[in-house]
Structures
1.
Amino acid sequence: MEPTYERTVVVGVDGSPDSLVAARYALRTAALRGLDVELVYSYPMPLVDVPLSGSFVDDFEQAGRDLLTGAVDALDVPPAVALRTRFAETLPALLMQELSRSAPLVVVGQHATAWFDRLGRGSVASPVAHHSGCPVVVVPPAWRQVEHERRPVVVALDGEAVSLATLDFALDEATFLGTEVVALHSVPGGTHGQTESAARNVVELLARAQVRHPSTPARVVTVRGVTQRVLLTAAESAAVLVLGPPHTDGLAAWTRSVARRVMGGVGCPLVVVPRRRHHHVPPASALPELLRVS
């Protein structure tokens, strides 16, 4: 029977130490959220002009299964998490995109950003991180559970309505980790009045989303500077950095996006939350007492 993915965190592995770090992150996240985990390895069959022998195909498939077995053996699986594996003879981009349509979360190691680029200037990052049906987490090789989970969840907001889904994920993550949310509003320039107006929009967004998380501390921090530099600095002391997709669709928009630019160098897990066209957050009410602007 084909497994279902509605309650399964999908993590891409390739036998590298970095992908094992991503798998450990996926197991930790699944344990907190009451989900299962599937380790996924895929690689297309070589394209050659001569027929491949049956033994070659068998050896190719066995190598993939051996890789997955080795990954499972290297992991400490929490008792409450069911772990399974999947090997497919296809492009990693296609498989991860397909599974993201029903999975609640897709996880990859940070080194896999190069894997993205080999398939056409972000052609994996675009469908998975930009057009994905679920949030995508990029885990750096230096991630360690004990060190990172004591830190706040940082979410970058810009006052646009599309940020609601991004903020909602950040509040969920902070609730599971037992930490606070820092809503970071970077202001590269503009007049004082424009800065104040944008900051008010961010406060209103946070108040609307926090109706579902009244006990999760949250605050807005407005900073001046280039967004990319600000985010990389903030990530150094964050448990997770949460970003939304570009405001417009298309590969060109993704290539120019902040998420794409910081993906390869961020020092904490980076979550790219997809645009949810039918995402609903309760209407605004009074600002929560825990909300403060600094």
2.
Amino acid sequence: MANPGTYEGNIQQALHYIEERLFSSLTLDEIADKAHMSSFHFHRMFQFVIGDTVKDYITKRRLSELKDEVLNSNINILEIALRCRYNSHEAFTRSFKRCFGISPKAARKNSIILPEYPPFEGRVFTENFSIAPVSGPRFIENPGITLMGISADVELSGYRVSRDIMNIWKLFFSKLPRKTGPSRFYGCCRMEGKTKIHEGEVFNYFAGVDTNEVSDPPNLYTEKTIPPHRYAVFTYHGPVRRIRDAHKFIYANWLPSSNAQIADDFSFECYTKESRPKELDSYSEIWVPVTCHEASMLHG
């Protein structure tokens, strides 16, 4: 049994909680609470180490547990759908088909053998990087900063994340006054509000610049204040479109091996004019809010 209080133990506790209440109405907040983490940071770590979003993992587990009823019983499909927390036959069918590649009606009619999705077992943190994709961290007391930019909710689901964030930045730059030449750009993430798992998982993304660098902000821009906090700051050299690899290293490798506890506050990326989507020598920073107790240091 993993040691409770460690990242390994906390994620295992969350997995156990999911299994105990698999067919209950679960929220991301309550699952994250079992791991002693905020919803956003828990979801990010969970996805990197388990390989699925929390929603997708629970969906696969529920469907796997009920697939025998779909295949080998005369129970109405809608009744099974309701047990699986779906409000309609159509929604259940879409989810079932995404999971197994066939509709429940066709699977039952043709007695199809469907794959199993058993509970996750074994150690959670097994990822090893031969070369760290980031250097650092250095620990900085951020005094707080007020930003001006564009905010939107983004669904935490596969390719949509990158696509939606890219669209936010496109809108941001299309409205940025031409005479403005900010030296730094900020992409801030945080999950706000309780979300039931079957309703989807979203977080708020904010693309902006320091208010001092925008003299005449357009009406579409809003303010966002990042409060004072201590941050572990990582330097990433590589194309911005691959920055997810850096986040995976931080959440799946650095945090579990350090003495740093991730804090419930904004996580953000800082870009400069040297940050480019495709260029290998592009420079960016990743700021992760932490509470450190003689945190282990990794030097690039």
3.
Amino acid sequence: MNPPNEILVSFDLDYTLMKNPFRQYVFPELNDLLQPSGEKTVRQWLNEEHTQRLGQGQFASAYDWDNMLQTVGQQQKWACQVSIKELVQKHAVPGKVWLFSDVLPTLQQLKQRDIPMVVATNGFACYQRPVTDCLGITPYFQAFYTPEEIQLAKPQPEFFQFGCRRKLIHVGDRLDQDILGANLAGAVSVWINREFPIAWRDIPAEERKNHPEVKSLLQRRLQREGSSFHTLDHVTPDYILASLDELLPVLEKEMRKKFC
């Protein structure tokens, strides 16, 4: 008999489950269409606007790429009117977006055990759903929680309020968004790091955070994410996975614990 479903599993999308078309296709096409003057690319201009909005506490609007494009375009006097939403729809096709190989078997396993799953992403639905639809994973999720819907974004702990009635287990690849937010919200944080050293993979997932070299691993990742100012205590995950193949035992372990 399957254990009682007192848990809710939320997944980040980009680089946790899938690869979107932004870097390889959307941003390069924007650059070709808009042809910005100077040395900065469109992506660099948008990233600056994104960072500025985050710094101003505009967490939800910092992920509204079309609004940011409109703002920057007016400032830079770009003549061409372009929709990032339409470009995502154009490029959300097989061969330009893809799933990691461990994703579909894991989603199927969880569905077979009636474990409820939702998406918790900082990407607006109009940029994410075309990709999940193309990849065939949309039906696995009961809901999509996105910044434009709840006017919050990770790592704000309030973003995770959708899991308040169950034990929430959040799976993501970013320390500064997924793990920090889940920890602040009191959820179980699961860091998927497919670059996790092979030599450490015999260590149980819940014990990997105690490895003496994990602190330096976390520090290097925070630097890559541009968020090295966070304290390690806040971004240390409850579990570290090298593959989503390791997720089901984690969920079974959490379901055996007394639900608080």
4.
Amino acid sequence: MFDFLSYNSMDSYIPQQKQVPSCHVRILQISPRTKKADIYSNGQLIAKGLGFKKFTPYFTLPAGKHNIKALMNINKPALADDTFIIKEGLIYTLALIGGREDIQFILFEDILVKEHENTSNIRLANLSSDSSVLNLSINKGDTLIEDVQYKTSSDYTAISPGKYVLRLEIPERYHVTIPDMEFKDGWNYTIYALGTINSKLNLQAFSILDGNTYLHS
């Protein structure tokens, strides 16, 4: 099962042969100023034409140091150029974020969580540059996740499976309501918050099924 069947498919995907030691990685493109980007790891193309709010399936990369670049044109400077050390057996989401002047990659580990019956697990990743911290509540109730700083994610929080209305809040400044967000039994999700208050791309959020639901090291 690949998460792109449930949410967003990417425009093109080039799989990598599994190597040992290795890890699982997917790439998420949520830089609103970037229409489509080609992603390279250590000079090798790993994703082509990745559009805004699109993501790849998970694929394997060898563990170790990786120089990751995002390019819109191979003859022009990279939009983002970062280096990460990825560890054997782990699961990652590599997100391309930022506006015109601050495009960069952020690496999130999709941490394994214990399975419990009649439970979904969700976490919040704050990629809204307009917010110092974000809170998340459900169905007009108490705050479920709070004080998530920019460019970080919360721990997973267990909730009952079902359909929810989410409230995403910049404390004492602004909030947005996200209706009809459904979470299934035994599945783990990350809710990615992006956008800003004072731009055409308003504060918003969407959820993606995480690979720790179905991938095993």
